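Usage example:
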Amino acid sequence: MDYSNQIRDIAAKLFAEGKIDVFVGYRMSGFDDNQVPVVITDPKETSVLVFTEKSVFNLTNYLKADHTRNKRVGLVVKGCDSRSLNLLLTESQVKRDKLYIIGVACEGVVDDKGNKMQNCMECFIPDAVVYDEMLGKLQGKKDYIVNADITELATKGLVERREYFEEIFENCIRCNACRHSCPLCYCAKCCIDQETSTLYNGTNTSSSAFHALMTWSLHLAGRCVDCRNCEKACPSHLPLHLLHKQNEKVIYENFQNHLAGVEEGDRGAFYKYSLKDPDDFIM
Amino acid sequence: MSFSTFVTDKAGLQKLYEAIISKHETYAPVEKFGKYDYKKVSSLKECDPDSPIAMTMSVKPLFFPRSSKIMKYESNSAGTSVSETEDDHLAVPRVILGVKHCDARGLQVLEAVNKWDYIDSDFQKRRANTVIFSTRCDKADTHCFCTSLDYDVENLDATDVALVNGIGGKLYIQARTEKGENFLKENLEKQSAVGSQQSAMDDIKKQYEAFAASFRLKMDYKDVNEKMSKRFNSPAFEEASRNCVSCNTCAFICPTCHCFKISDVKIKDTGVRYKSYDSCNNVYFTLEAGGHNPRPAKYRRWRQRSMHKFVFYKERFGVNLCVGCGHCAISCPVNISIFDVVNHVASTPVVL
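Running the assembly step on the lines above writes:
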């Protein structure tokens, strides 16, 4: 999977035609074979753009940054990234006519060590769902599967599960990097940023971390697209996907096989309240 | 005053570690999810004093905790009363094993600000009661640049006892402070001092030179200090910070960042006031009560961060606030290194 040349050409063309002000893509990190996001405003810089299986970070996170707000933006999206973009569009965070989206039929990305990311092995929508231009060969939808760590979580009792998460959250340092790196966390002031609240007071006590991460995960329930930006940002390497995947599974099973951002105009599970919704599950 | 150097081997070191852990309250790097953090240990099996630098959190939280109670209060109809919090569990005599040199230097740098203006007695007490036992790296990691900064990595006196690898499995244990000297006398069972033996000193020096040669990143900090001080208005800050996601991880894991916020946790009539980490990269950091924010743009926050590390702190206390550990770049989700930012800014033309 190497679309570097195509993306460079498209970006250069878009700048030349005056269709975009900013282009968000990936470049080589410069010190190893990993890649970092790059925000380009100068048409001359498009030659640094690359796209391979090392292009991990979800770039839709940059749509909430200073450089792209109210500007015409070109960006590259993989399957999962395009789902988060779909949600941002539905939630009126970005305007479709201000975006030029290069979709990629993603074959899966790899982590720093070169192993295929776990979320890519479970991926059910590898192709971008919203795009202006498509790169690569379409792979079509796949079956929804969850990894063994989630099915194992389901075998635990309520108390046991709480203890399991409490043990994980003990290592949380409350930097809120997970919330800031999440493309769907665009609230100007998130509830977990509050310093005056008794629950999420910004302290690093274990109860504050527990409440903050639980609330954060529930706010993303039915919206999380499993791009793992949060895990990539977490300095303590916490397995945050356990929270999101567990929510995703519960919602898939209970809300008519709902999967976040797959269809255009999808409003997320929690916005679609119906009296027939089941309530006999509480995580 | 000169301090002793002892020679031992791997088995001897294990024995020393075990003796320390059994006799003293000991903290050491403990692995969880592939990341090492300093925790209280009761046996050598739980921890790894030789943890890799890239995967180890800073030792700073043992001196300046991520959250600490600063006072308790009670308010009811009769009025408000304020009381001290319970005894500080970090201020008891203790030993920390496996501290990296850059981390230890971070504490030394922080001492300047903790002794200035307001004297942070908690920090001083914790440091005074602690023996720092450091291990020296053999090889630089991708983002390390400690040898480029204003301290002598080889003879660093921020650590009380230093461990240096020698040739052929030899290990040298060096006392660097009086506290360290006394500590070694008490704890080292079989004392085999090398004294001023030339061969041992040569061995240590050779190892250090090999270590210093393994650095990918090198810079002239004096040049950077001077150039940075003239580039406050440089547009380079905007360029360098463009792909920052403002996640604040860099400040939370930095061994020298010391900004904090105050928050109250109040339940009914009683409350506790906490001092917790904050970051100048956080958009709310400078937000005023009236709603005005003097640093609303990302590049302004980045400018503050890098200027504080390489200009303001240097002007006030004579040392850089960066120790070159590279933790910020390692933990950053988009791998921005303070090294790249300051060098990029220093290389641009002056803007008045």
